[in-house]
Amino acid sequence: MVGAVMMSEFVLTKPSPAYLAQIKAYREEFSDCLDWLHGAQGLKRFEEPQDWLDYLALCENDATVPEGEHKYAQFIYVRMADRKIVGMIGVRHKGKVSFIGMHRPMNWSLRRIRYAVDSKMGFL
């Protein structure tokens, strides 16, 4: 416990059908900025989370990566206290790497997380 905020454990895990409703909610939360939903490989193109999971399965294997795409590993960042997705992280395995354009080897996005404020210590 730090101040008034209880510290939580977080894990990175592969997205799975157990998280379909949360994936949909995550996408909807970012609906005003889907043109740059980083770290969620292609999620902006899929209305249905299961279709996105199927696409991710193709992107994990060199033999099945769709034309014009790249091998990619997708992870969700989960807060263990309530098993809530709080972020997404994606790792590009191959391809052009540029830190100036959209071709970064790793992308991520996080939900807005509210923090308690202590008047003496600032943000906790």
Please, could you describe this protein's structure?
- The protein is of the alpha+beta class.
- It has 2 helices and 6 strands.
- It has helices spanning 20-29, 49-59, and strands spanning 10-13, 72-79, 84-92, 106-110, 117-118, 122-123.
- A hairpin with a 3-residue loop joins β5 and β6.
- The longest helix is centred in the middle third of the chain and has 11 residues, at 49-59.
- The N and C termini lie close together (10 Å).
- The model is unreliable at 1-5, 96-100 and 114-124 (pLDDT under 50).
Q: Which labels suit this protein?
A:
4-stranded antiparallel beta sheet, 124 residues, 2 helices, 17% helix, single chain
Look at the helices and sheets and give the structural class.
Answer: alpha+beta
Beginning-to-end CA distance, first to last residue: 10 Å
Tell me the count of domains. 1
Q: C-alpha Rg, in Å? A: 16 Å
Roughly what fraction of the amino acids lie in strands? 15-25%
How does the overall form come out from the CA principal axes?
globular
Can you count the helices? Answer: 2
Residue runs with pLDDT of under 50 for 5 or more positions? 1-5, 96-100, 114-124
- In sequence order, what are the helices and strands, one letter per element? EHHEEEEE
